[in-house]
């Protein structure tokens, strides 16, 4: 698995197989092709419905997938994915990641403090240039329980640009995306709640601090067959588009926003703001289906402190895969997102408990044996179950995610998350939302066994804790308030059960807020 040529062949095979796999899911029940000829008015109507991305198209029977050019028709069928420009014009989600999210939210057009800058922004976008500047503040205090009382401030400044080369120089479907951050502040988890960073209540705290600009991603995107096939290549986090959900970022805690941190924490399936060389492809066959896979380097440098170390000295590869369904049910168009995915990491990592001779490390005093492959898999879903009004997310949405690690060297064993979001319940404030999330993470059992043995032998425990770790839970209640164009305020309460995943410190109650300003 370490041979780059073998990995590349596997990756290409996966991409090739995705197309018929996605087609087979849709065949006979959901899949249709476009008729060979349509009237000009019909073509105009179909194009309009494609741009709105909410209308249904008329179905037609086809003879076969591979005959009479059906593959081209298949790839050009009604596009279910919004363009990057559509996503940006719609505004940014509650997420700190902003325009990185593919989903469309119910915020006003040009939802920015400075609006269109007197029409300048609109004119630039019409010529293929868009830019992002966002300030995020997440401040939380430990008001009860934990190690001690205290308040921590952290912030993140997001700076990015998007270039549409089709508008600029006529290269159809080609675009370029670059985004970086600057972070600063303190960590409420290690300052007041416990002694480890296993739980991170502030999503914006961490890597990217104390540098002027930390590169998060810089990649080219090529869309083909009317956006039915999208290929990304460049520097980007491996899990930026795998296992993520913008709904998770209605919460502040990193365990929920924006992907299952129990599967990515201290892994090579890297997340914001780390970047890796990588390539991924996504097939959107219509009928609200998609399939995607990628190939990313496991880098010893991980871009360096500022993310601009572009050396390619890989220690292996991360191969993520995901399939999904994004349906709309009933006349109310109750939207949902369903996904199944996982990743394989081919790099080497030491076992935290078993030594090279097969005995426990505290007894043998030898290094841990090498684990030559690891990974994880997950299943996630969200579904609107009640609609208040016609706006996209105006209703009650149920959210769930479960993930399991498959490897001895990973710090966590599993993660389970449930949530409910009620947005637009007040007719005069359809963009406001109340959300509640519950998450439970289980620590890798090998780490627990190691700590138990160290405790019995009177040795310092792995991870710097004073008692063995097992599991912890996070309950979070957040209100999303759109204060004015470009400004959002999120009062937040978090209740942490078993800080440090043990019973050393009492359960902690955190209170604070997120402030988001998009310019």
From TrEMBL:
Membrane-traversing stretches: none
Compositionally skewed regions (Basic and acidic residues) per UniProt: 41-64
Single annotated GO MF: porin activity
A Pfam family assignment: OprB
Listed GO biological process terms: carbohydrate transport
GO CC field: membrane
Start and end residues of each stretch annotated as Disordered: 38-64
Family: Belongs to the OprB family.
Protein known as: Carbohydrate-selective porin OprB
Species of the source: Acetobacter senegalensis
Phylogenetic placement of the source organism: Bacteria, Pseudomonadati, Pseudomonadota, Alphaproteobacteria, Acetobacterales
